Amino acid sequence: MDELRRAGVRAAEIVAGHLEGVPAGPVWQPVPEAGRAWLGGLRLPEAGRPLDALLDDVHAHVLPYPMGNGHPRFFGWVNSPPSPAGVLIEPLAAALNPSVAGGDHAGPLLERTVVRWLAELVGFPHPPGGGLLTSGASMATIVCLATARQQAALADGWDAREEGLHGRPPMVLYVTEEGHSCLHKAAQLLGLGARNVRKVPVDASYRMDVGALRTMIAEDLAAGLRPFCVAGSAGTVNSGAVDPLDAIADVAAEHGLWFHVDGAYGALGVLDARSAPAYAGLDRADSLALDPHKWLGVPVGCGCALLRDPAAARAAFSLVPSYLVDDNADDLGWFSEYGPEQTRPFRALKTWATMSYLGREGITRLVEHTSGLARTLAAMVERAADFELLAPVATSITAFRHTPRDGGLDALNRAVPGAVQARGNTFITGTRLGGRDALRACFLHPDTTEDDLVLLLEEIRLAAKTL
Ligand SMILES: Cc1ncc(COP(=O)(O)O)c(C=O)c1O
């Protein structure tokens, strides 16, 4: 234990020094050849090495080459900096190292609380047991869509778990053209077939065209298919758009469809008073995916599947062999009965720590600050002659493009993110939006300032000149 204690003190120093130094360093830098060779060519040592030597290696070869998302000028994809409370607490979860599959210990009890907190935070109905933490939203989506699939089968008088899908009318899932790839992956994995995922068109704000949804459902019913689920987005990854959730809930109710909401990134946007009206109807969903490892900043990986009816998820997943029967479990049983994972990490501890440290006020301030930055950047883009705003700001993402000349804008904007990243002063990623190559900046860092936005546009200009 002495070795662990001594190395632990040093590790804490290294962590604090690293985090302190992040803002002054490059946002991102490529790993040099020697570093690549070291990281990629390591051999398993024959004899074990002291803890101190491991810290030396991490200090020299790992910490200098981060992804960049700890930096206040990182605006790529949807990746937040780690919350200080999460960084502090994560080793304690490892020290306990439980499996939070179930059982009588702190892990399952705290996970229930944290899941309830997440539901309450965004105003989602929460019956006891109505959700579980997952590795991320991709896994949460699998939980929710598998639950929806089994509910549809049971409503039709059969059991998808027992029979498989063969010989049954194909079940159809509706997502928008802007729906996250994890919805498609989940549908494919669940045996629904990519061809049975409808891409509902979007309006000029990249929100689901609910009239088109109605038409598609009618066509599928007429063709003998089985519409079973519609998935709306509360914050798309491309532009941050929030689908018209209330109107989608109406359609789902009319047709008896499961209503899923992908709020992996954006569900917390409801805490910003200016954005909140767009979230009307979120509380009508049957399931909601919400990632604590995105806007909240809980260290990766922590997603959450929230379920209006926990019994539905249990019906889709519960399989308890004799060696796992727990006669002392309460009525809700084990978490492993609500999803595919058996051994489950103690994700609740870092989520509890992060939420407790910030409190509702701190979380709201973070969401307001970062949403405000997205709106400010949008206003700057609209004022600039050499930029064009591509979507209204709904959450904390600004979608835009650089327009310094007349032709070749797709090629230019496709090349800009890489060129900006290579300069090391800020980090942006690109996408395709409305048939055009676009830039998008996602704000999640509490320390990003308006000066950083000025620098971002300047960096894009400078990078574009080299292309
Ligand atoms: C809107 C949205 N949905 C789903 C996901 C998938 O989440 P995860 O990467 O946690 O599996 C993401 C990831 O960025 C996302 O932004």
TrEMBL record:
Give the cofactors, semicolon-separated.
pyridoxal 5'-phosphate
Q: Which Gene3D superfamilies match?
A: 3.90.1150.170, Type I PLP-dependent aspartate aminotransferase-like (Major domain) (3.40.640.10)
| Alphabetical list of InterPro entries matching this protein | Aromatic_deC (IPR010977), PyrdxlP-dep_de-COase (IPR002129), PyrdxlP-dep_Trfase (IPR015424), PyrdxlP-dep_Trfase_major (IPR015421)
Q: Does the keyword Lipid biosynthesis apply?
A: no
Sections of the chain in a coiled coil:
none
Q: Which UniProt keywords apply?
A: Decarboxylase, Lyase, Pyridoxal phosphate
Q: Highest taxon of the source?
A: Bacteria
Protein name in UniProt: Pyridoxal phosphate-dependent decarboxylase family protein
Q: Which family does it belong to?
A: Belongs to the group II decarboxylase family.
